[in-house]
Structures are given as structure tokens and as C-alpha cells.
């Protein structure tokens, strides 16, 4: 099993890291400029107390700045690659691996990456679950073929059968 990480460390694939860097550059550059121009244009419309465009632009500015702070924090605490050592055996669940599991004996198994949501791959239908989520805590280190259970936030007991563990890609 891979190294245990603090809650601040985020494992990202190279592609996910690049995507976040691009988003940060966009939000700090072009997006900020667009918002500033929108605020200035709305301010010129007159009374600010009743100016919906002005308030919407200010709200957008706040959301953009909050996302910038979030991205900067993630990028400061990122580890690139996966926690899964390329020579590690694929007999148990580890961070950064693709897990195939059957939830509550459902007919169709699901596939997901155990790691940061930025590692999800929508084009291939692979979601991501945090290792600190109830599911992540329950399956981390579980052997292929084993069944584990956990209590969901809604109070229901969930049974997860680990079918396979694979590397990303």
C-alpha cells in the first residue's frame, strides 16, 4: 500500500495538474480582466444600490477570487503522479489506482480512481472518490476479491466488493 498522506497533499496526474495550472492562469489573467471591465461598465449605468448588473459582476468577482485561492492551495500541496508505485502489485486498493467494484450487489460494477476529483476522466466514464470519503476509507488497502462495508452519511450500510485494481491509462 502507498504512503499515507496528510489531508493537505493532493495527488494529481500530470494531465490534471496541467489543467489546474491553465485554469489558474486564466482566472488570474483574462477572467479577472473581463470581470473588472464588467464591473466598470455596470458602475457607469448609475445608482449602484439598484444595479443588478453591478452586484452580479461583484458576485462573480468574489467567486473567481475564491477559486483562485482554492487552486493556489491545491497546487502548493500537489504531488504529481500517483501514489501507486509502478512496480506495486495490483492485489489491493491504493491511492491513484482505478478500482472496479460492485456496490450492494448491483448488477453493474463501477470504475473509479481513488484520489482527487481532478483525476476523474469523464471521457472514459471514470469518476474519482477521495480516500478520506467513507467509501475511500473503507476500501483503502482492501484486497481484490474481498468485501468491505461502511456506513454512508445517510445511515445506510453499504457493501463493496473489490473486483479489480488497475493502473490509470
If you had to describe this structure to a student in words, what would you say it looks like?
- The protein has about 170 residues and is of the alpha/beta class.
- It is built from three helices and seven strands.
- The strands form two sheets. The chain has a five-stranded mixed sheet with strand order 5-4-3-7-6. A two-stranded parallel ribbon has the order 1-2.
- The two termini are about 20 Å apart.
Strand line-up across the major sheet: 5-4-3-7-6
The number of helices is: 3
- What is the number of domains? 2
Judged by helices, strands and strand pairing, the structural class is alpha/beta
Average pLDDT: 84
How far is it from the N-terminal to the C-terminal residue, by CA? Answer: 20 Å
Q: What would CATH call the class of the largest domain?
A: Mainly Alpha
Point out poorly predicted stretches: 1-6
Amino acid at each position: 500500500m502507498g504512503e499515507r498522506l496528510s489531508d493537505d497533499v493532493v495527488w494529481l496526474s500530470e494531465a490534471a495538474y496541467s489543467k489546474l495550472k491553465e485554469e489558474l492562469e486564466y482566472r488570474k489573467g483574462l477572467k479577472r480582466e473581463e470581470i473588472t471591465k464588467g464591473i466598470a461598465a455596470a458602475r457607469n449605468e448609475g445608482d449602484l444600490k439598484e444595479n443588478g448588473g453591478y452586484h452580479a459582476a461583484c458576485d462573480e468577482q468574489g467567486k473567481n477570487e475564491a477559486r483562485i485561492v482554492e487552486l493556489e492551495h491545491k497546487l502548493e500541496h500537489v504531488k504529481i503522479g500517483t501514489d501507486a508505485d509502478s512496480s506495486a502489485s495490483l492485489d489491493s486498493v491504493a491511492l491513484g489506482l482505478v478500482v472496479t467494484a460492485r456496490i450492494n450487489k448491483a448488477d453493474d460494477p463501477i470504475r473509479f480512481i481513488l484520489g482527487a476529483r481532478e483525476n476523474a476522466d469523464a471521457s472514459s466514464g471514470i469518476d474519482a472518490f477521495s480516500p478520506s470519503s467513507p467509501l475511500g476509507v473503507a476500501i483503502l488497502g482492501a484486497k481484490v476479491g474481498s468485501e468491505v462495508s461502511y456506513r454512508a452519511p445517510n445511515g445506510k450500510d453499504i457493501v463493496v466488493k473489490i473486483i479489480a485494481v488497475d493502473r490509470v491509462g
